[in-house]
Structures are given as C-alpha cells and as structure tokens.
C-alpha cells in the first residue's frame, strides 16, 4: 500500500481498510487469471491463487466464496471490453442474419483465443461440483444470449428468420455450437481461424433451420 | 444397480479370466489381482459420484475399497486412469443401448431422438458421474484422453450412420453434409446434459426440447 493510495482517501474511517480490500481483490483476480489460463480449472487451486497473489488463503475466502466465483469475476471483468466491441459493431452490420451471427461469433473467437485456456476453464467450471450461487460459468452469462437474441429478432423483422421458431431454442443451439467448437482446441490445438471456419459452417446449417419455409 | 452388478460379476468370473488366457487356468495371483481391480473400481465409482472428480482422492478410494494406496497404484497408474476405466465401461454399455434405440426409429428424426433418449435415460441414474465426466472432458490435460477413447468416438458414428442411411433411402438430400451434421447432432445431444444435471429436467422435457433441436438441425437436409 503506497502513501499515495492512503492519501487519496483521507480522514474517512474504514476507507483505508476498504482500499486494502480492493487491492487484495485485484491481486487475487490477476493471479487467478494467469493460473486458470496456464493450468486450467481443475489444475488451479485456491491455495495456489493465494500464494501467487501473496495473500493468505483466509483472505481469499473473505472476498470470494469459491474457485468458481473467482473465475466468474475474472471472466466478467474481461468481458466488458468484448461486449463494448460487440455493442459498437453490431448496429452497423448489414446482410443476412447468418452473416451477422458469423461476424459476432468471429469477434468472440478472436477475443477468447488470446487466453483460450481461460475460456476452457470457464466452460469446465459449469460442471464444478461445489458451484456456489455467485458463480456464473459459461451458459449462465446473459450477455451472449442477449446479443444473439437481438440479432435473431432483427432477422425476424427483416424476414429471413421464421416467426414461429422458439427463439430460446435457436439461441441455445448457437450457444452450444459456439462452446463445443472450443473442443477443437483440446483435440487438435485449433487456432481462432480454424474455429471460426467451423463455426461459420455450423451457423449456416442452423440458419437453414430457422429460414422461412417455402 | 443390477446392470452394474452384472458387469462386476462378469469381470471376476473365472470363465472370463480363462477366456482371456485360454492356454492355462488363472493363477490364484491373477484372480486376486482381478478382484482387487473390481473392488477399487466399485469404490472409485461411488466416490466419483459422491464427490466429483476433483473431490475424490486416491487415498479415499483406497480406504473405501479397504486397501492401501499402494495396492491401488499397483493396478492403476493414477486417478485419471481409474476414471477412464469407469467411463469406458459405462460408454460401452450405453453404446449398445443407443444403437438398439436408433434402429427402432420410424424415420431419421425419430431414430436420432430415440438415440438421444437412450443416453439421457442411461445417465438419469448417474448424473453425478456424467457431471464429473464433462468436467474432465473440458480439461486441457484430462480432456484429450477421455475424448479420444474409442467408445467416446463411436457415439458420433451412430449419428453419422443414421444420416447416411437416410440419404441412401432418399429421406435426406445427397448434399446433407453428413459429417458436420452428425457432429452437431452429437454436440447438441451433449449440450442438454446441464439441463438434466443442474435443473433436474424430466425425460419428457428433454425429449420435447431435443425434438425441436433435431428438426432445426435436419431442416436444411430435407428433400424438396
């Protein structure tokens, strides 16, 4: 804790403790991000995170209820810039719904490929035994769902998405195609380009299923 | 439970052991070793189901089987080896059930749906083990060996065969992109497990959802 930090919150009782707590939290998140990306979800322990962050195991637990919750926070913090980018790009996209979905997922793959093992951890965490309420593993994150939903709804307005589909089912199909495409990293060390190529074809196939009949 | 017991019995049957080594009767030592394996596998199955893959330790498994950790390591190289053995056992049993179900379908869509349901029904009684398997399969270290098991790969072949024969019958178009569609059907089958595991979906609810998913995935391959 530097003097400058302490000086920035003078006088208020508890302010020092508050900023110390925040600093601890940030250190834990930074350490966890690196560990998850290197050792995966199973290979990372709270003890290891505490050691790297140079804090006690106890103080990790005063801030986070579980390993899954730490990972959720890490992912959440990373996703802000990603979805800022998605929000910026999506309104400008033209063309068929399938192509707009392809662009949106391509942005995701390129982003996640930078720390791909972190994203694999995010998916693995969805099957964690000890998952707590605060954890938001892949699939329970609403932002991707919302982005897909908006794209499909616009497609319905434009007339290239059937009106009688169950929107949530198509969203789930796309979400699972997206997640399962990452298995190519596990089975064949695929890079973002390879994953995007596979996803593009899968979107085409799903689009045949939501295209208006006739 | 009865199916499980049957498999265990099969493992320790002297006839089985004799069949593996037809030249001579099994030695007492070989039999004892086989019995140890069976005991360890049963204990491991229980602990993986109760505590997940991460939560179950070799030490606990050994204790539950009533033997030393050394005795466990004499039979299995490590925890992942144990887990793979259990999964292989289950997957082989399920593969048979899925193939049987698939051929009873009235058409390609129904065959795929029946295959899905055979899988969900099989795992309904062992969801915790399924959960452990998914968790391992997304691990960069444990994932490849679990996903690469021959029985694991054989699941996708069921969907490939269903689609290919539908193309032959003229039910699906020649340009059905069988390989990718089979992959997606398999992925979709797997992707419904979280609903079953975490949200307690009934088999009926899973079936309704699966039927819609299959229809969407087949739509582009329909003729005319």
Please characterize this protein's 3D structure.
The complex is a heterodimer of chains A (214) and B (224). Chain A is mainly α. Chain A has 11 helices and no strands. Chain A has helices at residues 3-7, 15-43, 46-53, 57-63, 67-89, 97-113, 116-124, 142-158, 167-181, 183-188, 192-210. In chain A, α9 runs antiparallel to α11 (192-210). The radius of gyration of chain A is 20 Å and the shape is elongated. Chain B contains 13 helices and no strands. Residues 1-18 of chain B have low confidence and may be disordered. Chain B has 224 residues and is mainly α. The longest helix of chain B has 28 residues, at 28-55. The radius of gyration of chain B is 20 Å and the shape is elongated. The A-B interface holds A 40-43, 117, 120-121, 123-124, 126-130, 139, 165-166, 169-170, 172-173, 175-177, 179-180, 183, 185-187, 201-202, 205-206, 208-211 and B 51-55, 131-132, 134-144, 147-148, 177, 180-181, 184, 187-188, 190-191, 194, 197, 209, 212-213, 215-221.
- Largest sheet properties of chain B: none
- What best-fitting shape of chain B do the alpha-carbon axes yield? elongated
The Rg value of chain B, from CA coordinates, equals 20 Å
Largest interface: pair, residues per side: A-B, 38 and 40 residues
Distance between the termini of chain A: 68 Å
- Average pLDDT reading of chain A: 88
Instruction: Kindly report how far apart the N and C termini of chain B lie.
Output: 48 Å
Number of helices in the DSSP assignment of chain A: 11
Proportion in helices of chain A? over 70%
Strand content of chain B: under 5%
Low-confidence stretches of chain A: 1-9
- Backbone CA Rg of chain A: 20 Å
Structural class of chain A: mainly alpha
What is the quaternary state of this protein? Answer: heterodimer
**Helix-strand sequence of chain A:** HHHHHHHHHHH
Structural class of chain B: mainly alpha
Mean pLDDT of chain B: 86
């Amino acid at each position: 804790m530097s003097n400058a930090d302490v000086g920035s919150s003078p006088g208020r009782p508890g302010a020092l403790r508050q900023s110390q707590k925040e600093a601890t939290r940030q250190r834990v998140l930074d350490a966890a991000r690196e560990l998850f990306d290197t050792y995966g979800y199973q290979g990372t322990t709270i003890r290891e995170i505490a050691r790297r962050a140079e804090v006690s195991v106890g103080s990790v637990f005063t801030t986070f209820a579980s390993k899954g919750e730490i990972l959720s926070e890490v992912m959440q913090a990373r996703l802000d810039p990603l979805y800022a980018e998605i929000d910026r790009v999506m309104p400008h996209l033209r063309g068929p719904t399938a192509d707009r979905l392809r662009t949106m997922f391509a942005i995701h793959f390129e982003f996640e490929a930078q720390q791909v093992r972190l994203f694999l951890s995010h998916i693995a965490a969805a099957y964690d035994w000890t998952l707590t309420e605060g954890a938001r593993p892949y699939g329970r994150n609403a932002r991707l769902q919302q982005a897909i939903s908006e794209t499909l709804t616009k497609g319905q307005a434009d007339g290239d998405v059937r009106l009688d589909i169950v929107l949530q089912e198509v969203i789930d199909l796309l979400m699972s195609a997206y997640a399962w495409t990452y298995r190519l990293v596990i089975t064949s060390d695929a890079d973002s380009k390879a994953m995007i190529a596979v996803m593009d074809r899968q979107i085409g196939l799903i689009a045949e299923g939501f295209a208006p009949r006739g | 439970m009865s199916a499980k017991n049957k498999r265990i019995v099969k493992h320790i049957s002297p006839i089985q052991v004799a069949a593996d080594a037809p030249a001579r009767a099994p030695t007492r030592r070989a039999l004892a070793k086989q019995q140890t394996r069976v005991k360890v596998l049963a204990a491991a199955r229980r602990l993986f189901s109760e505590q997940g893959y991460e939560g179950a330790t070799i030490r606990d498994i050994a204790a539950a089987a009533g033997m030393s950790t050394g005795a466990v390591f004499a039979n299995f190289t490590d925890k992942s080896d144990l887990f793979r053995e259990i999964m292989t056992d289950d997957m082989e049993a399920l593969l048979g059930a899925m193939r049987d179900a698939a051929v009873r379908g009235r058409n390609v869509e129904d065959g795929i749906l029946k295959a899905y349901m055979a899988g969900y029904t099989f795992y309904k009684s062992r969801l915790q083990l399924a959960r452990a398997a998914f968790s391992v399969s997304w691990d960069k270290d444990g994932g490849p060996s679990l996903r690469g098991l021959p029985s694991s790969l054989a699941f996708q072949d069921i969907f490939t065969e269903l689609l290919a024969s539908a193309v032959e019958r003229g039910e699906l178009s020649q340009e059905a992109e069988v390989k990718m569609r089979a992959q997606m059907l398999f992925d979709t089958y797997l992707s419904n497990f979280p609903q079953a595991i975490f949200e307690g979906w009934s088999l009926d609810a899973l079936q309704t959802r699966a039927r819609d998913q299959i229809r969407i995935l087949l739509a582009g391959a329909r003729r005319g």
